[in-house]
Backbone:
């Protein structure tokens, strides 16, 4: 039943309860109790005014009840719970910001590392040809992804007093190995890659020509990726249009096709 006396009495009875959720809950409970009593008095033939006055009279002094309710509903644990929720939210925000900062720093560091390892355009007069490309060819096997990120082809011509002009061509290849599982071991098959080109030459562990060889070394690594540099001495550079890095042992078939017909050259 709506009546100002009921509202006033309930408000005074809960005024000393400090924790707002408790205060609202106790107010609703007292109001429901008063409404039930008013309904009983109305059923006995009282007017609405008489029923409201009788109901609050039966409930007693609201100020005395307020002191008793405040002693029951002490604020420490409710406030502690509320504060702990806000502290957890703040801590979660800091953790999220820290993780985001780590991701951004990781990306920046990776980009900086890649920039530090960029092949420098040779300025010596002995370098008669230079080709730089970013082929970004990719293949995957056993939880590892192999990506050729850079390739640079250098032709170096020098004058020898006895042999005259001697030219040699080197192909430098950068490969990134990305792990699906950061706790996985380093990719052990990387040093078993071999190479071939469009002229049918074979380089590396299957090479039968001592003038053709392919070597590999580690240039950078982390928990999620590894970088390797391959250096290849090319047998017939004048006819070279592509080079492939391959691994075909233990049931695997990895092929990384590097197109050498474009790129930035001099």
Residues:
């Amino acid at each position: 039943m709506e009546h100002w006396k009921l509202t006033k009495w309930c408000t005074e009875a809960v005024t000393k309860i400090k924790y707002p959720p408790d205060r609202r809950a106790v107010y609703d409970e007292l109001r429901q109790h008063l409404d039930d009593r008013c309904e009983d008095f109305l059923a006995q033939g009282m007017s609405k005014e008489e029923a409201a006055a009788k109901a609050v009279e039966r409930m007693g002094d609201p100020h005395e009840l307020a002191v008793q309710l405040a002693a029951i509903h002490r604020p420490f644990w409710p406030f502690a719970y509320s504060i702990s929720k806000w502290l957890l939210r703040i801590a979660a925000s800091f953790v999220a910001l820290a993780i985001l900062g780590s991701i951004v720093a990781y990306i920046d560091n990776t980009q900086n590392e890649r920039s530090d390892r960029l092949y420098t355009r040779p300025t010596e007069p002995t370098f008669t040809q230079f080709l730089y490309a970013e082929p970004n060819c990719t293949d995957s096997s056993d939880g590892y992804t192999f990506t050729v990120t850079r390739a640079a082809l250098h032709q170096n011509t020098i004058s020898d007093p006895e042999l005259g002009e001697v030219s040699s061509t080197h192909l430098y290849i950068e490969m990134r190995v990305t792990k699906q599982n950061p706790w996985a071991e380093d990719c052990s098959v990387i040093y078993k890659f071999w190479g071939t080109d469009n002229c049918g030459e074979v380089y590396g562990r299957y090479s039968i020509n001592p003038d053709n060889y392919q070597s590999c070394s580690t240039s950078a690594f982390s928990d999620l990726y590894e970088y390797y540099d391959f250096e290849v001495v090319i047998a017939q550079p004048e006819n070279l249009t592509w080079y492939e890095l391959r691994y075909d042992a233990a049931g695997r078939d990895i092929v990384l096709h590097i197109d050498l017909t474009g790129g930035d050259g001099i």
